[in-house]
Structure prediction request, 212 residues.
Amino acid sequence: MAVTARLVVAGAALDADDDAVAAVTTALAAAGAPVTARVIVEDDDVALEEALAAPSDLTIILAVPGTAAALATPAADVVRRALADVTGARLMPSEKIRAGLEQAALSRGRPLPRLTERATLVPQGATVWTTDGAEPGWLIESQGRAFVVLIPGARLSRMIEQHLVPYARSLTERSLTTGHPAVAVRTLRSPGRAGVGRSQGGRASRRRLLRP
Prediction:
């Protein structure tokens, strides 16, 4: 059984021809997990949850804008909330995210803006991915599915090479051996969730489907 991958761009700053989209798509194809669907979702909770709920073994979320401060933006809040809702995980602060952001800023010789706790929140149980010079990403596995959040940037290729490609290959190898990707099933539920609450505004869901 082949591993299916889905690429979701959270924000309207990227398109089908963007370097980050092309890099992820090419790397996953080489790893045996070709992208079968690409979706651009604007900063809307409902639309993003719908995109993440679509069946796929591996879903890659590109959170834009791709800067060290991206994790403190409303767009990043939407990504966090949607993933927490889809996986049933509580949002928790991560020191690895904080350290990764500081290291990425240091590698560029730029001071990092003062971080709030909100910028370090990730779903409980997530594995944080860090590599020299790149903004940190993370992986969370739930209900037999895997979700990866990456921040586009000049050094995204390092994150793809060091973390995404080996993980995608491991899913492919397990699929060939067992007939399914064998993603660990993890369900973390909590009646409360840290972080920014859901907006009560009635924004219409807007997303664009792109040809793979």
About this structure: DSSP finds five helices and nine strands in the chain.
